[in-house]
Design brief:
- The protein has 575 residues and is of the alpha+beta class.
- The protein folds into four domains: 171 residues, 2-Layer Sandwich (Alpha-Beta Plaits), CATH 3.30.70.1230; 55 residues, no CATH class; 179 residues, P-loop containing nucleotide triphosphate hydrolases (Rossmann fold), CATH 3.40.50; 134 residues, no CATH class.
- 40% of the residues lie in helices and 20% in strands.
- Strands 1, 2, 3, 4, 5, 6, 7 and 8 form an eight-stranded mixed sheet that branches. The chain has a five-stranded parallel sheet with strand order 16-17-18-15-19, with helices on both faces. It has a three-stranded antiparallel sheet with strand order 9-10-13, with no helix packed on it.
- Helix 10 packs parallel to helix 11, helix 15 runs antiparallel to helix 17 and helix 18 packs across helix 19.
- It is globular and about 80 Å long.
């Protein structure tokens, strides 16, 4: 041991830390320590193992040799901790140089850049999935079997203020549940659940969402924990409402009139394809169908899911621009090594990156931006969207330019674009606008066929459409409930839906959305009293997917109306 002290080694380091360790009871800490100890003991069996070091509320493990070992260990430890204890563990990994040293007891220890940087990577993790440094991530992606497991590069700030680039480590089936714009982690053990409604309902306790674990017959487990503290304003809180279901089950997609319009706009090479809808009407699904159509046309496709970008990154323009460019280059298969010229300013640097990506690729590109309205709350929103509008304008000025090869798809919630101050510099009034409307009879019939004709009689299908008002989310949840035997068409017509059914949970989530939006809730109360509501309240109710129609408008579904009236009565009795 002594003769090795001071030696420099090229190693991989996996660093783990228990979140809020000091808040746990002594009994819980003992359990946590036992789990950490048994996990470290298991890793000692690996040929690449050098040392495991305990540092109180966490640990780090050092390996030498095959760098894939660090990725395997990160995934193994992550799964082990989630199975054995409720405390969350942040895990980060890095490859680099470290120095051998003796600790005070004469045991083997390590110090130096590799350990320090692995710790920094760990500090920007959230306990949902392991992270690896950019250096280690790029090495792992050189191995074919790891390419699909190292994904979602992002810039994150450590406490010192420095931004570091990290990669997520997860299975190909890894997915996320999003609430209020903040990631809530989930992962898949076997097959995909039939819909997100099977994930269970988020329980709201004192403004926070407690952790909830639900397990379906398909093996899907969901872990939810957190609150809305990181949102920027009450206005954003009211808009970024927790969604516990989607408009159409992930495994089921139907062809609607709007689907054909999206496909046509992409085929024609429009500058912008704008997909707008209220909450729960399926704008993300439609944007995904557009991406699939672009692939079929031979276009390259890049997906930017703005829900996956952390609030800290969104708040800083340069961080956001770099992260967007990194995703653009990565999905196009290009290397991202770009000098950021401070003298040029943020927008010109960002445009340089987009131009380079276009110049280094051939053919058309469809760039899909999902949840685009999340950017509208940022101070730089007018500058960013004004820049994007200029790309549209340059098509007219520069015939045959690279901009004619780029189509940008923007999916966003209705009325969000009112936040753009200068409408003349907005991309939301050029290109092709597709507004998603409620289901018509043909749409519901198509969904019914895709789900195995759970409603056989056409008159019953008409009853379902009438009761639900064509609300895509309600229609989807109702057909699922009928397929599982949770309810009948007669139950729907009578408003009898179980609280624990998929449809019942969705109705409860719609009510929770309304409760969290004071303007919309005030309008609803005015409606119940037979009074005229304000235009602002009406717009908010439309945004939530509870009201529909222009200029004549009404509550979208008689089921929503009866459920909300009953829900309001329960609250009054409780008060």
């Amino acid at each position: 041991m002594r003769e090795r002290a001071g030696e420099a080694r090229l190693v991989t380091v996996v660093y783990g830390d228990v979140i809020r360790y000091s808040k746990h009871s002594l009994e819980e800490k003992k359990l946590i320590d036992d789990v950490l100890r048994s996990a470290a003991e298991a890793e000692k069996q690996r040929a690449e193992f050098l040392a495991a070091v305990d540092n109180g509320d966490g640990f780090f493990v050092v390996f030498e040799g095959d760098p894939r070992c660090a990725g395997e260990v990160a995934l193994t430890l992550d799964a082990f901790f989630k199975e054995k204890m409720t405390a969350r563990v942040r895990i980060g990994a890095h490859v680099g140089v470290t120095f051998v040293r003796e600790d005070l007891r004469g045991g083997l220890n390590f110090t130096g850049p590799a350990v320090e940087f692995a710790q920094r990577v760990m500090t920007v993790a959230d306990g949902g999935h392991p992270l690896v440094s950019d250096d280690l991530g790029r090495i792992l992606r050189e191995f074919g079997e790891w390419r699909g497991l190292i994904n979602s590069p992002s810039l994150r700030r450590v406490k010192s203020g420095e931004a570091i680039l990290v990669w997520q480590v997860g299975s190909r089936e890894f997915d996320q549940l999003w609430a209020g714009g903040t990631a809530r982690e989930g992962w898949m053990e076997s097959e995909e659940p039939k819909s997100l409604s099977e994930w269970g309902l988020l329980d709201r306790l004192s403004g926070e969402y407690r952790r909830l674990v639900s397990e379906t017959e398909n093996g899907w487990r969901v872990f939810v924990e957190g609150c809305f503290d990181d949102l920027l304003s009450d206005e954003e809180l009211n808009l970024w409402l927790a969604e516990t279901s989607v408009a159409i089950p992930k495994s089921v997609k139907i062809e609607r009139k709007c689907t054909g319009r999206v496909r046509q706009a992409i085929a024609q090479g429009e500058s912008f394809v704008l997909v707008r809808s209220p909450v729960g009407f399926g704008k993300s699904t439609l944007l995904q169908q557009g991406a699939e159509a672009a692939v079929a046309l031979g276009h390259q496709v890049v997906i930017l899911d703005i829900r996956r970008i952390e609030s800290a990154v969104l708040a800083e323009r340069d961080l956001l621009y770099r992260e967007i460019l990194h995703g653009l280059f990565d999905q196009l298969g290009l290397s991202f090594h770009m000098e950021w010229d401070e003298e040029l300013g943020s927008n010109l640097n960002f445009e340089r990156g987009v131009v380079r990506a276009l110049e280094e690729t051939g053919g058309r590109i469809f760039w899909a931006w999902d949840e685009a309205e999340r950017l509208l709350f940022q101070e730089y929103a007018d500058d960013l969207f004004g820049l994007m509008r200029s790309w549209h304008n340059r098509r007219a000025w520069e015939r045959g330019s690279i901009w004619e090869r780029l189509t940008i798809g923007l999916a966003y919630r209705s009325d969000a674009t009112q936040l753009i101050k200068n409408q003349q510099q907005s991309p939301f009034n050029v290109g092709v606008m597709i507004e998603i409307s409620p289901f018509e009879k043909d749409d519901l019939s198509a969904l019914n066929r895709e789900m195995g004709n759970v409603v056989i009689q056409q008159d019953e299908l008409s009853d379902v459409l009438f009761v639900l008002g064509g609300h895509p989310g309600l229609c989807s949840a109702a057909l699922e409930g009928l397929a599982r035997g949770e309810l009948s068409v007669g139950d729907l017509k009578a408003g009898r839906i179980g609280d624990q059914s998929g449809l019942g949970r969705l109705m409860e989530s719609l009510w929770n959305r309304l409760e969290r939006d004071e303007v919309a809730l005030s309008g609803w109360h005015q409606y119940e009293l037979g009074r005229e509501m304000s235009a602002e309240s009406l717009n908010r109710l439309r945004l939530l997917g509870l009201w529909y129609g222009r200029p004549e408008s009404k509550v979208i579904s008689s089921l929503i109306e009866s459920f909300f009236r009953e829900r309001g009565k329960r609250i009054q009795l409780h008060d």
